[in-house]
Automatic annotation (TrEMBL):
Name under which the protein is recorded: FBD domain-containing protein
Entries under Pfam families matching the protein: FBD, LRR_At5g56370
SMART domains recorded: FBD
Domain of life of the source: Eukaryota
Length: 327
């Protein structure tokens, strides 16, 4: 990349792909609002940090990093509103991590299974953060194909980093998390309580069928939740008999605060062969005092639909205005 691009007063949007950058001794990009940096070769960590720091009106930043890039990425910006960071590897190794200091940040997407830490600092008390956590940082050095005991070991190993990350995002208003992220947070909650996400109004979770037993306790950390989207997926490692046994053993003994006071909409996508969706729907209908609408999305249309409709009509509802829709 030509050096003169580091000092361009009129540049508003910069998108670079597979470019090798020279060391930035002096950077001044006073008009830059959008910057995409995908698979860039940085001579050192300071060059990336300087690019961001010296773009005083930067609002949107996307960084896609090669899987073998082990640099620390520090994002310090007083103006940044949207940040996407991706560093994904099919191999099992870790890099130093990511540090974000952007008090005006309102949208953050993370796809990272390499960084051993992901730290977020200095959110303003009235700041709003929308999170899309896909895969989570590899705080536990594992992927979804591993078993629960390895999750437990990994969460214990990275307990301090997970604590800092979760408390850093506790001001979030909406969040989308993958099944691996859900599993990590649930195992972490066995060690110490999750932070209270009191600003959270929208939550989108993908989870395995045999993990849905953790849902009520998990929702205790979202006392003002209004919209809950759930996507339940089968675990390919377990056969049908084992999954049915897991579902049969689930007993919900607690009712989180959000069901009693704030939850108005539920959107549930589920398979139809294990009865898990009926157990969860029954629990939600019986305990959600202000629920207005529950949507049940079945993975496929079959003869069980009519059977399920009849069962739904017999379930008592805590909210008299609740409507149930099956798609």
């Amino acid at each position: 990349m030509p050096q003169r691009l580091y000092n361009c007063e009129t540049l508003v949007c910069l998108k670079l792909f597979q470019v090798t950058l020279a060391d930035a001794e002096f950077v001044s990009l006073p008009s830059l609002k959008t910057m995409y940096l995908e698979y860039i070769e940085f001579p050192n960590e300071a060059t990336f940090e300087t690019l961001v720091l010296c773009s005083p009106v930067l609002e949107c930043l996307k960084v896609v990093v090669a899987s073998d890039n082990e640099k620390v990425f520090r994002v310090h910006s007083r103006s940044l509103k949207r940040l996407t960071f991706e560093r994904v590897s099919p191999f099992l190794f870790e890099s130093a991590g990511v540090v974000i200091d952007a008090p005006r940040l309102s949208f953050l997407t993370i796809k990272d299974n390499v960084s051993k830490s992901f730290l977020i600092h200095n959110f303003e008390s009235n700041g709003i953060l929308e999170m899309s956590l896909v895969g989570f940082v590899r705080l536990v050095e594992i992927d979804d194909e591993f078993f629960d005991d390895i999750y437990e070991e990994g969460v214990l190993l990275r307990r301090s980093n997970i604590h800092k990350f979760l408390h850093g995002i506790s001001m979030a208003k909406s969040m989308k998390i993958s099944r691996g992220t859900f599993k990590i947070m649930c195992h972490y909650s066995k060690l110490e309580p999750l932070p209270q996400f009191r600003n959270m109004s929208y939550l989108d979770i993908t989870l395995c069928l045999h993990d849905f037993k953790w849902l009520p306790a998990f929702l205790e950390s979202f006392p003002n939740l209004e919209y809950l989207a759930l996507v339940m997926v089968c675990d390919d490692r377990k056969d049908d008999d084992v999954l049915r046994e897991d579902v049969d053993q689930v007993s919900f003994s607690s009712v989180p605060e959000c069901l009693l006071s704030s939850l108005e909409f539920v959107d549930l996508t589920a398979p139809v062969q294990y009865d898990v969706e009926m157990k969860l729907v029954k629990y939600l209908l019986k305990n959600s005092a202000v629920l207005e609408k529950l949507i049940l999305r079945l993975a496929s249309y079959n003869s069980r639909r009519d059977y399920m409709l009849k069962k739904l009509l017999k379930i008592p509802r805590a909210s008299s205005k609740c409507k149930v829709v099956i798609l």
